[in-house]
Every structure is written in C-alpha cells, then in structure tokens.
C-alpha cells in the first residue's frame, strides 16, 4: 500500500498540467493544510516546484498586500523532471540558503 505522502507525488507525476492544492485535497479527501505540508516536503526534497504567477503588488496607493483591486491567484505545483532547464537543486539539509 502506498503512503499518502507518496500518493501526493504520484498524483503530480500522473498529471500533464500543474495541480492546485485545493483540487488535490478534494480528490484525496484530506484537509488543504495537510496536503500543503505534504507538498512542502516534496518541494524541500526537490521533487516538486511551485509554478505560476504570484500575488501582484500594486504600488499606486501604498497599501501593499491589502489592496482590494489586486487578485491573488492560486498556487500550482508540478513535478521537477530530470533535464528540466528550470529545475532547481534540492536545498541543503542544514536549511541555510547558499551553502553547499
């Protein structure tokens, strides 16, 4: 039997398009927070990566992060495949960026 952690990665590997956390949580019958933590594990391992546009920031009025006119887009993830030009190395186990 496959663990739920491995099942999360398998679902990403079976998809040809990026997958959202909420969609995956719904399919697996899990809470979004649990799936987010599982995805975070695979991101730290270098097996998944976040894709898509991040929250836009408006610099017009100076109310950064609270502007009602800026739309927050959902976060999507995809599998990091061998040979991808945009793949990133897994972070060092120490958790400090730039070491290695």
Question: Mind explaining what this structure looks like?
Answer:
With 100 residues, the protein is an alpha+beta fold. Helices cover 31% and strands 10% of the residues. A 3-stranded antiparallel β-sheet has the order 1-3-2. Helix 2 (21-28) packs across helix 3 (32-44). The chain is globular and about 50 Å long. Mean pLDDT is 75; it is low at 87-100.
Keywords:
three-stranded antiparallel β-sheet, disordered C terminus, 3 strands, alpha+beta
What is the compact description of this entry?
This protein is an alpha+beta fold and 100 residues long. The chain has helices at 4-13, 21-28, 32-44, and strands spanning 19-20, 48-51, 76-79. The model is unreliable at 87-100 (pLDDT under 50).
Shape from CA axes?
globular
- Estimated helix fraction: 25-40%
Main beta-sheet strand count, sense and barrel state:
3 strands, antiparallel
Q: Total number of β-strand segments?
A: 3
Put simply, the count of helices is: 3
Summarize the helices and strands and which ones pair or pack.
Elements: H1 4-13, E1 19-20, H2 21-28, H3 32-44, E2 48-51, E3 76-79
Antiparallel strand pairs: 1-3, 2-3
Helix pairs in contact: 2-3
């Amino acid at each position: 039997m496959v663990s739920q952690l491995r099942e999360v990665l398998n679902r990403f590997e079976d998809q040809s398009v990026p997958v959202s956390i909420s969609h995956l949580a719904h399919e697996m019958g899990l809470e979004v927070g649990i799936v987010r933590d599982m995805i975070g594990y695979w991101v730290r391992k270098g097996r998944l990566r976040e894709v898509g546009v991040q929250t836009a920031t408006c610099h017009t009025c100076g109310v950064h992060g609270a502007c009602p006119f800026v739309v927050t887009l959902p976060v999507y993830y995809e599998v990091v495949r061998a040979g991808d030009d945009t793949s990133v190395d897994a972070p060092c186990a120490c958790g400090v960026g730039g070491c290695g």
